[in-house]
Structures are given as C-alpha cells and as structure tokens.
Amino acid sequence: MFNKYTKFIDSQERDIALIDRCLKNDQRAFHELYQHYSSWLYALCIRYSSTPDDAQDALQESFINIFKNLHQYSRESNFKAWMKRITIHTSLAQHKKKNAKVYSQMTNEITENDAIQTDFISEMDADEILFYINKLSPGRKQIFNAYYVEGYNHREISELLGISEGTSKSQLHDAKKELKLALEKNTSIAKKHAL
Hints:
CATH superfamily of the largest domain: RNA polymerase sigma factor, region 2, helix turn helix motif
CATH architecture of the largest domain: Orthogonal Bundle
CATH topology of the largest domain: Rna Polymerase Sigma Factor, Chain: A
Oligomer: single chain
Largest sheet: none
Order of helices and strands: HHHHHHHHHH
Shape: elongated
Number of strands: 0
Structural class: mainly alpha
Distance between the termini: 56 Å
Number of helices: 10
C-alpha cells in the first residue's frame, strides 16, 4: 500500500543515492540534484531577497555550500531540512554582507509602550500575507520571515545577521506595524469602494 510515509522513504532513498553519486563527483548527479530542488530552494531564497537577481545569487551560493558540505550530511536527518537550513543561512549572510551599512544605522531600542498586536495577521489569508510581506523593506522582510515563517528567535536572528537582539526586535516591531498600517489602509479603501 502506497502512503505518505512510503513516499517519504522513497524520496529519502533517492536523495541518498544522489548524494552518494555526488560524493563520487558524478556531474550528472549534481545536475539532477540541482534540477530536483532548485525551484523549491529558489522560493525560499526569494523570501529573504530584495530582488529576483539577489534570490538567484543566493540560490547559486546555497548550492555551492550544499555541494561543498555534502560529506557532512547525516543520513539519519531529513535532507530537505538540511538543505533548507543551509539556504536560509546563505541568504541571510548574503543580505548581511550587502546591507551592512543599513544594519549599522538601525536603532537598537524598541519602545515597550508602543507594542503592536499581531492578531490581525491571523485574519489574513496566505496570499494576502505574502503580498504585504513582500512590500516590507528588505531588513524588515528578512526578520519577519526568519521569526514568523522559519521560527528563529531574536538571539538566533541576531547571530545570523550580525545585529543586536534589540535591532531584531525593533525591526520585527516595525514590520508588524507596517503590515498593520497597510492592512488598515487596504480595509479603509475597500470600505469606501463598497459604499
């Protein structure tokens, strides 16, 4: 009987066979691995990039890092999760290098009395959330994705981006505020058109 578990086992076995071939410098295996996962990893890179070109650069750099570190992959762990971690780290590192000046100018403080509620996010559908996230400034977009989508905490984000935890909190706060204002503006426009 074929089920999700069987599909996962088949996928894992296929990946391990490809990894073994890659470790023997089989160029066709490198190409197959790239073809199989590049679209999925590109979608991940675009979350952390300002432009499609930046996402493409991050994808290429991620695959270089994946191929360089393939010998360190533990076969007991999920291969997709392992590649995802490398891709996120690579994308964030690329962004950090490109935007070092921007981060150095960010404030390190978050005002406690101006807390933003996040209840409004649960009222939005996935396409709506993605639309507004993609409109955020690059720094805010990255931190929002790292925190809410990937589940990193502020300490981890600060280490990945080389910023303080306060800066991470401040940028997340500003991202939520920006999202809320955009949503309120959009709701207000929709109400006017409905009248």
